[in-house]
Write a structure and sequence with these properties.
Number of strands: 12
Catalytic activity: 6-phospho-D-glucono-1,5-lactone + H2O = 6-phospho-D-gluconate + H(+)
Radius of gyration: 17 Å
Bound molecules: 6-phosphogluconic acid
Order of helices and strands: EHEHHEEHEHEEEEEHEHHEH
Structural class: alpha/beta
Keywords: Hydrolase
Number of helices: 9
Largest sheet: 7 strands, parallel
Strand content: 15-25%
EC number: 3.1.1.31
Pfam family, one: Glucosamine_iso
Family: Belongs to the glucosamine/galactosamine-6-phosphate isomerase family. 6-phosphogluconolactonase subfamily.
CATH class: Alpha Beta
Shape: globular
Length: 266
Amino acid sequence: MNPRPTTPEVTVRPDERTTARTLVDALLEQVADREDPHVGLTGGSMGVEVAREIGARWATDETAAALLDRTHWWFSDERFLPEGHADRNDTQVLEALGTRPAPERWHVLAPAPGDDPSRDEAEAAAVDQAAELAMVPRHEGLPSLDLLVLGVGPDCHVASLFPGHPDSAVHDRWTTAVDDSPKPPPVRVSFTMPVIRAAEQVWLVACGEGKAEALAGAREAFAGCASTTVAARAGEPLDRPAGWAQGRTATRWFLDEAAAARLPAA
Ligand SMILES: O=C(O)[C@H](O)[C@@H](O)[C@H](O)[C@H](O)COP(=O)(O)O
């Protein structure tokens, strides 16, 4: 196995809009030479902003639309709620995209049976999602997305892997059910960290001063996370999941100036 890069490549833009635009320019380049690219999307404010920008290209740029038409779209985490619920990540992303990708390329989590699902119901959806992930080309036995875009929480979470929570260190499954998320709603399904780290490239996108401290912490932990594995933690929860969110060949961070304010000078 080639060693992972020990630093993220950081791109800083003045605001959310230009950060999302820069990321989507790079995304289009990244998928351009792939036959059947697999891209992971995320929820949250910047996840939706990125989707809005992807939707704008889809609607106005024929070359981009041809690439986006043949992309498989996944969600690295989902808020486990009924289909079409306004708080589901896929509902919000779909609305921001303004276009409906082909059903066979739109890989969303099964719906919850009601607004107050149980952990067992979320576990069943996680198992179904893992079965669907089996179609993604593998690297060392794990599904390896070409590109995974992740938001970052002010507490340093990514996807639905929260610092100090046991789910953050799950390493024997591809997906996990979370029933005590500090960010509502409480019940979610998330890719596990080994699946995040199996992606060829992982891109974090974050804007605003509320993210500056989390990013500084993740940056500090980054090199240490590159040289070890989640399995080596033997189930001990991660304290800075965003520092672990690394691609096999590259990790890029797309930030605005406020989010980047506490990073060490390049
Ligand atoms: O379900 C969600 O909300 C997410 O998938 C989550 O991981 C999100 O990406 C971060 O919390 C950042 O969200 P914000 O950009 O809204 O802070």
